[in-house]
Design brief:
Elements lengths: L1 H8 L8 H11 L3 E3 L6 E3 L1 H20 L3 E2 L5 E3 H4 L3 H7 L4 E6 L2 E9 L4 H11 L8 E10 L13 E11 L2 H21 L6 E4 L11 E8 L5 E11 L1 H6 L2 E3 L5 E3 L1 E8 L1 H10 L16 E5 L7 H12 L5 E3 L6 H11 L3 E5 L1 H5 L2 E6 L5 E5 L3 H26 L1 E3 L3 H10 L3 E6 L3 H11 L2 E6 L18 E6 L3
Parallel strand pairs: 3-7, 15-16, 15-17, 20-21
Antiparallel strand pairs: 1-2, 4-6, 5-6, 7-8, 8-14, 9-10, 9-22, 10-11, 11-14, 12-13, 17-18, 18-19, 21-23, 22-23
Helix pairs in contact: 1-11, 3-7
């Protein structure tokens, strides 16, 4: 077990230094690697496999709502980017520019897409003529580049993978309905697949997407009490359409501007999985997103019949799970520690004595509990166990979020809570930008969202004491 113990000891305790714990888990679980290009990361097989599962499940859910996939260029001419004033101002500090094609200067510099609103607008202008062409409900899976000053794997890197949906509709009502529909799609996915509970709501004017009429968000709470924006859905109204001249002829043969939406999630979700579920032994993956759900570890594998029995069990379990046999020439202790580090939900131990007794030891990654299971029933047992683990992980994450969600009714109470009890803070707000700015400047907490489910905690703003308009979730965030 000594070599396995060393593997675990390489992780800093999350209570000692949460940021270092996170980095240790990312590196030791072999999810990413650093590159010679500062701020850019390699997604290793273990990390990319999680993204592939996220992509496959979300893509399926998108298509059930009528979404079609497309792919647009990664380069945006400067003149195109500048057509929507608020949009270009919002992204200008993060844009990476291309000035040469080979050895020759470009006539017009190009930016590497930080997002694709302008490209979709240019595309829609040429592709939409009549109400019969609507709606356009498109999505693309791609990478984008944003020149972040400080980077951290998954949470903030200069290039990251994501999907961006861009839709065009005939009416304001249709656009708003699609915006909310996709937000709900994200929320359901996070809870049902990632076992991460979220708060749904609307961003304030200050926090909304540049160029949007309204931005909606799902906010998750990490283990250290910081919030993470985990997905956004934007209603653009007709602002982009007016800037780009995207018009259609309606049923009365009159020209109208389309109404647009945009929505996206990124590889940041992998960071959320780590920080919501992980512990001092490493990663914990919810079964539905885990690339390997069950790892079979042969004990005394060089003894006759052990590896053969492990393979027999693998074949049986492959009908109900994603399962592998770890037949590497390592000690069982090392394999146990590695399996825990990588977050594999279930471990099956099988050795000569187990084979004699027609049984195996089954261990849960989330709770550490072990059970001795008959080999005759192991497939049905594992099938149910994976469902139980998925459910239990969501309940544990929800219990953590709820126990770290506080109410503040006065300014002193708000400041004390921010400093001494990390988590979500529910408080009333007058709706004024001045108060929002003051809260951020003096406490470091930001408005996470105005939740759809409003509560009247008091009738005055927590900051200025003026009449309150909205209950808001506040928190320090990544």
């Amino acid at each position: 077990m000594a070599d396995g113990k060393k593997k675990v000891e390489a992780i800093t305790s999350m209570e000692e230094d949460f940021a270092q714990w996170y980095t240790d888990v990312v590196v030791k679980a072999d999810l990413t690697g650093y590159t010679s290009v500062k701020g850019f990361m390699v997604l290793k097989p273990a990390g990319y496999a999680i993204w592939e599962n996220i992509q496959a499940e979300l893509d399926r859910r998108f298509k059930e709502t009528g979404v079609e996939n497309v792919y647009l260029p990664m380069m945006i001419p400067e003149s195109l980017l500048e057509k929507e004033k608020d949009h270009v101002e919002g992204f200008a500090p993060e844009v990476a520019w291309v000035t040469h094609g080979g050895l020759n200067p470009l006539q017009e510099r190009m930016c590497v897409r930080p997002t694709s609103e302008t490209l979709f607008c240019d595309f829609y202008k040429k592709d939409i003529e009549s109400y019969r062409d609507l709606p356009k409900v498109y999505n693309q899976w791609c990478s984008v580049v944003r020149w972040e000053k400080e980077t951290r794997p998954f949470l903030r890197s200069r290039e990251f993978l994501w999907q961006e949906g861009h839709t065009a509709h005939a009416t304001e009502e249709e656009a708003e309905a699609r915006t909310i529909q996709m937000l709900n799609c994200y929320a359901d996915f996070c809870e049902e697949v990632l076992a991460i509970p979220v708060v749904k709501g609307r961003k304030t004017e200050k926090e909304k997407f540049a160029g949007a009429v309204a931005t909606y968000t799902i906010e998750a709470l990490m283990h250290d009490g910081k919030a993470l924006q985990s997905g956004t859905s934007h209603n653009f109204g007709s602002g982009f359409a007016e800037a780009f001249g995207i018009q259609f002829t309606d049923k009365e043969n009159k020209l109208q501007y389309v109404h647009q939406t945009s929505w996206g999630v990124t590889t940041r979700l992998i960071g959320a999985i780590i920080m919501v579920h992980g512990d001092d032994n490493g990663l914990k993956l919810p079964p539905m997103i885990a690339p390997t759900q069950v790892m079979i570890i042969p004990i005394q594998q060089k003894k006759e019949g052990v590896l053969e029995k492990a393979e027999e069990i693998r074949e049986k379990l492959s009908k109900v799970s994603r399962v592998k046999v770890d037949d590497a020439d390592r000690s069982p202790g090392f394999k146990f520690a590695e399996q825990e580090m990588r977050g594999i939900p279930v471990r099956v131990e099988i050795g000569p004595r187990d084979i004699e007794a027609n049984q195996a030891v089954v261990a849960r990654r989330d709770t550490g509990e072990k059970a001795t299971v008959s080999l005759d029933e192991i497939d049905s047992y594992i099938e149910e166990l994976l469902k139980t683990i998925q459910k239990d992980m969501l309940e544990a994450a929800r219990a953590h979020r709820d126990s770290h969600t506080y109410v503040a009714k006065s300014w002193d109470e708000f400041k004390d809570t921010v400093e001494n009890r990390p988590g979500f803070i529910k408080a009333m707000w007058c709706g004024e930008r001045d108060c929002e700015d003051k809260i951020k400047e003096e406490t470091g907490a930001t408005t996470r969202c105005m939740p759809f489910e409003q509560e009247e905690l008091s009738d005055v703003c927590v900051c200025c004491g003026k009449p309150a308009k909205k209950m808001v979730y506040f928190g320090r965030a990544y």
